[in-house]
């Protein structure tokens, strides 16, 4: 009956989820023959006093019981490190890494969930590994919520990798591609070398411009902070005083400056190659204007991430809103087949 189990699993409902404090973001996919359909995507506030009850109610309201659940850890629940790859067999890698990083983390080993994934082999600097250090209680919380809400837990991932699930149409061998994504406190620059994640830099206090359309005015939350990234070093500092209260021109100037500084750093310190293309989320006309500015002022080739490359959705949903939920959309899209870019 393996063929039946695979068929049922392939066509199961999927939901990408992220819980930051009491703020729940989700993207709920329905199975379709060719292109998955987004049935619902939103950000809602759960009850602090009865979080489990309100989470179960939210899942029931969108009829997502029994769906495959793909959780994205909130940034305050984990750290992403880069370490030299231990010279041990793969079967001993996890334990070797645990002892290698025990003095670099601020949580006892017994209170941490530690996993690792490959650092791109063709980047300079020798053999390395990315290491994710998550708090055990944060991971257990997601496991418990899934069980209590009749969700089929499939994966618990980090934002950097969930965003990469949406980048496949642009990724190709020999190229460095950067995705500019939103965070609760600003933006992040996520770089990919070939088909692999290679670098992340958080830019707190710098924001993507957005249209003044009421349909795009979903309230922001500020319950979380960006995760510390150790691809770079302490000499790389950021100006963080520019926020959404500033004028568009001021914010855009700061945005262009910080993007250029980050990409220059990535080229000089990480990849030894320039980023060949920048991808922006689709927030409407102002995103298109920013793309033109990046091209004109920095000489960058820029594309806009159109979610219709991956999904269908009903007329009641708007792409500009969906683009604010990229991590959970990418989480729900994990392991779904899509072609890579071609030369």
TrEMBL record:
Residues 220-235 have a biased composition (Acidic residues). Residues 210-235 are annotated as: Disordered. This is Tfp pilus assembly PilM family ATPase. The lineage of its organism: Bacteria, Pseudomonadati, Pseudomonadota, Gammaproteobacteria, Oceanospirillales.
């Amino acid at each position: 009956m393996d063929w039946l189990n695979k068929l049922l699993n392939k066509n199961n409902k999927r939901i990408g989820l992220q819980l930051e404090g009491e703020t729940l973001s989700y993207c709920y996919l329905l199975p379709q023959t060719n292109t998955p359909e987004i049935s619902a995507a939103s950000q809602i506030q759960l009850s602090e006093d009865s979080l489990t009850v309100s989470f179960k109610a939210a899942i029931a309201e969108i009829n997502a019981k029994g769906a495959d659940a793909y959780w994205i850890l909130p940034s305050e629940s984990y750290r992403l490190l880069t370490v030299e790859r231990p010279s041990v067999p793969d079967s001993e890698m996890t334990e070797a890494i645990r002892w290698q990083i025990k003095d670099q983390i601020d949580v006892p080993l017994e209170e941490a969930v530690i996993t690792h994934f490959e650092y791109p082999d063709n980047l300079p600097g020798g053999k390395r590994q990315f290491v994710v250090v998550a708090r055990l209680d944060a991971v257990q919380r997601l496991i418990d919520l899934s069980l209590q809400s009749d969700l089929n837990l499939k994966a618990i991932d980090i934002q950097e990798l969930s965003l990469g699930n949406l980048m496949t149409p642009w990724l190709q061998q020999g190229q460095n591609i950067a995705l500019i994504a939103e965070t609760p406190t600003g933006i992040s620059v996520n770089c990919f070398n070939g088909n692999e994640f290679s670098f992340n830099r958080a830019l707190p206090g710098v924001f993507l411009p957005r249209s003044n359309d009421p349909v795009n005015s979903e309230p922001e939350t500020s319950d979380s902070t960006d995760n510390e990234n150790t691809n770079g070093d302490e000499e790389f500092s950021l100006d963080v005083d520019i926020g959404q209260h500033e004028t568009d021109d001021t914010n855009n100037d700061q945005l262009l400056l910080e993007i250029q500084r980050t990409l220059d750093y990535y080229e000089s310190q990480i990849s030894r190659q320039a980023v060949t293309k920048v991808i922006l989320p689709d927030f409407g006309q102002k995103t298109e204007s920013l793309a033109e500015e990046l091209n004109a002022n920095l000489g960058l080739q820029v594309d806009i991430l159109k979610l219709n490359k991956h999904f269908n959705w009903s007329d009641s949903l708007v792409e500009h809103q969906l683009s604010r939920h990229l991590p959970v959309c990418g989480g729900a899209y994990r392991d779904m087949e899509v072609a890579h870019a071609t030369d």
